[in-house]
């Protein structure tokens, strides 16, 4: 029995007890994870194709460890501009082992619909109109506190213009805000941004930036980036 399932934005053909390397997951090592986007199932020759996924089917796996892939050299060059840039990159991966393939019974429970509160009945008798009194003078409006100036979040390794604008819209506009956020919450905010993003180090990078430790941050970012050009 095997299945074709989507894991972390990629499609894999998997079977029981098979080891698979996928893009970095936020799940801790040793814990189980369920993938419910099963596109195809083959049970001893009986093939079921989803439309686009199979309702109730899932692949259950266990996170073995987190690791980084082989180093890849990324070289940029512009003709007749004298521009050359060389960077190294190592993809963050997660090793998982498939424990079981569930054909039925993994359907998620539908969220309960909130009951609409009954609208209050209109009063049959109108209340007597109050006597006109002199309107009290309105108190002077208080000035809204000035908003803190936004930081350039793109200075954090792994954050581009699209992610930076998404974080600002979510209320994370400064290095101090990002330092207080948890990686899992950040991943939830940028879930709709295309690509695979590892947010584990972003809060720590932001804390160093907020404290003005730029030299120390730059040195660490070179290591994260796989080497300086």
Describe, in plain words, how this protein is organized in 3D:
The protein is an alpha+beta fold and 229 residues long. The chain has helices spanning 161-169, 175-180, 183-189, 202-210, 214-224, and strands spanning 2-7, 10-15, 19-23, 32-35, 38-43, 46-49, 58-78, 83-102. It is built from 5 helices and 8 strands; from the N terminus they run E-E-E-E-E-E-E-E-H-H-H-H-H. The strands form 2 sheets. Strands 2-1-5-6 form a 4-stranded antiparallel β-sheet, with no helix packed on it. A 4-stranded antiparallel β-sheet has the order 3-8-7-4, with no helix packed on it.
Structural class: alpha+beta
- Identify the quaternary structure here: single chain
Largest sheet: 4 strands, antiparallel
Helix content: 10-25%
Low-confidence stretches: none
Q: What is the 3D form?
A: extended
Taking Cα atoms only, what radius of gyration do you get, to the nearest Å?
27 Å
Average pLDDT taken over every residue: 83
Order of helices and strands: EEEEEEEEHHHHH
Which strand order does the major sheet show?
2-1-5-6
């Amino acid at each position: 029995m095997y299945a074709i399932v989507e894991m972390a934005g990629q499609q894999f053909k998997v079977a029981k007890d098979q080891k698979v390397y996928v893009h970095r997951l936020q799940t801790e090592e040793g814990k189980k994870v369920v993938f419910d986007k099963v596109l195809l199932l083959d049970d001893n020759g009986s093939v079921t194709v989803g439309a686009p996924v199979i309702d109730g089917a899932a692949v259950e796996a266990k996170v073995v460890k987190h690791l980084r892939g082989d180093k890849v050299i990324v070289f940029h060059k512009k003709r007749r501009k004298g521009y050359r840039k060389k960077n190294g990159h190592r993809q963050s991966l997660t090793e998982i082992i498939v424990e079981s393939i569930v054909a039925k019974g993994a359907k998620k429970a539908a969220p309960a619909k909130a009951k609409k509160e009954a609208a209050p009945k209109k009063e049959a008798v109108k209340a007597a109109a109050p006597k006109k009194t002199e309107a009290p003078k309105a108190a002077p409006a208080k000035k809204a506190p000035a908003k803190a100036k936004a930081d350039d979040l793109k200075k954090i390794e792994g954050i581009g213009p699209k992610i930076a604008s998404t974080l600002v819209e979510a209320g994370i506009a400064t290095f101090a805000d990002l330092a207080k956020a948890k990686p899992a919450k950040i991943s939830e905010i940028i879930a709709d941004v295309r690509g695979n993003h590892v947010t584990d180090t972003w809060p720590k990078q932001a804390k160093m930036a907020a404290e003005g430790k730029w030299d120390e941050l730059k040195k660490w970012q070179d290591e994260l980036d796989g080497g300086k050009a």
